[in-house]
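Usage example:
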Amino acid sequence: GAVVSQHPSWVICKSGTSVKIECRSLDFQATTMFWYRQFPKQSLMLMATSNEGSKATYEQGVEKDKFLINHASLTLSTLTVTSAHPEDSSFYICSATRYRGGKNIQYFGAGTRLSVL
Amino acid sequence: ELKVEQNPLFLSMQEGKNYTIYCNYSTTSDRLYWYRQDPGKSLESLFVLLSNGAVKQEGRLMASLDTKARLSTLHITAAVHDLSATYFCAVDPSFGNEKLTFGTGTRLTIIP
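Running the assembly step on the lines above writes:
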């Protein structure tokens, strides 16, 4: 089956530093990737849609300068949390869309737990 | 604004019992998804429901969709401990663009 790899799985950083999270589709090309955020015991909230070769589309309320998304190739999207603060601590999950059997199927990465001290 | 609500939010049930989780959504959608999430892990896809009246079953789980009522159900039959997890439904109102809106989640605990 399709595999989406997310790296790192857990990162602890100091306040004010930037953190980059990678999302790779390992065995398929994904024109579209999504980034979600999940606070403890809450649901997933879509942050942005990442399309290869174009600027990401951010959901309302998500700061694009805070959460930089780069979709450099059909298999890689990165999310950089700039100048991270404790309130950015969360579980970040990416997903990649694969077109198969006449429909788009979304595959999720294992998630990245970000803790900002 | 699309709202997706699940009921109940928390559920503790004994092994061997049956129960149903409900997912209500507020706008037209032609596809609904069910996912399972174990603590600290990402999402595992359970079901994709693509049409009114769709019913899918996998093991002790069965999902159905009523697009007219904007309601999906996830039925658990003869629960076992391994089914303990958080279950999310998600709706794609963008007709295939895959921008999912997730439900509030139902945290299920199966007790012996």
